[in-house]
Amino acid sequence: MEAFTTYLSCALILFIIGLYCLVAKRNMVRLVIGIEILINAANLSFITFSAYRQPGYVDLLSQSIVVISMAIAGSVTALALVILLNAYKHYGTLDVRKLRRLRR
Amino acid sequence: MCISIAGIFWTLGAPYVAVFQLLIYAGAIVILFLATIMLTGRDGREKIEARDILGIMASIALGATILLLFENIGMPPSVTVVEPVLVEEGSGKIGQAMTAFLWNQRGFDIILQGTILFASALCCLALMRRRKEGRRN
Questions:
Q1: Contact yes or no for A74 and B81 at CB 8 A
Q2: Which domain holds residue B23?
Q3: B127 in a domain, yes or no?
Q4: CB-based contact (8 Å) between B61 and chain A?
């Protein structure tokens, strides 16, 4: 059970780092990285619960959910980065505060 | 970070997920981020402000709340939807069981996932194309 707590603590630390990125950072690239870290934290907690629900066995349902979540996270990131590139070409900055000021 | 999380997945008896993690995160997403940073240039280091410290404190407070919730709630109730696979059977057997499970029981999800990936690729292409047309005008 100690390993279970350790893995969950890892997920929690990742969650806190991702949340900090979302709350404190202004650069859009760093915000997207924060979202990725949050998704990783959620995936890690899913796999941890799947491994320790029944000792000695693994649950395939949560693993399949994590695989699907990863693929969707990849596509979301690609879209976010393309939108970010367009914003940079249009406004010349990635600072979300400046972008909010430039909004028409 | 991506590679170490893949290692954790492997040790937790999820080799299929670990390989996916390496392929998608360490392979694709990191390259996407590198390309974006290369195209946009460096913004320089952000100065630490009072808002940042407030953000750190808020994040830690939320993390502590979640930790307390985990301690009080504990393990979720066991509802057997799928037959679990024995870890001692090895990563090859787990990978085979995972592949069979994905295609036999989550086939519709996989097709939907492929559709989402295809749609997002089309959206990316459309957004990049629009930028080029704007440049010509």
A1: no
A2: 1-43
A3: no
A4: no
pTM: 0.78
Question: What CATH number is given to the structural domain containing A18?
Answer: 1.10.287.3510
Q: Which domain holds residue A93?
A: 2-102
Assembly ipTM: 0.81
A51: tokens are: 């491994």
Query: What is the per-residue pLDDT across A41-83, written as a single tens digit (0 to 9) for each?
Result: 999 988 888 888 777 777 788 888 898 899 889 888 988 988 8
Helix (H) or strand (E) run with residue A57 in it: strand A57-58
Torsion from C-alpha of B34, A39, A102, B136, nearest 10 degrees: 50
The string of pLDDT tens digits covering residues B27-56 is 888 888 888 888 887 666 666 666 677 777
Phi-psi region of B14 (alpha: psi -120 to 50; beta: other; left: phi over 0): beta
* Count of structural domains, chain A: 1
- Give the position of tokens 């972008």: A99
Total beta-carbon pairs less than 8 A apart between chain A and chain B: 174
The answer to whether residue B96 is domain-embedded is no
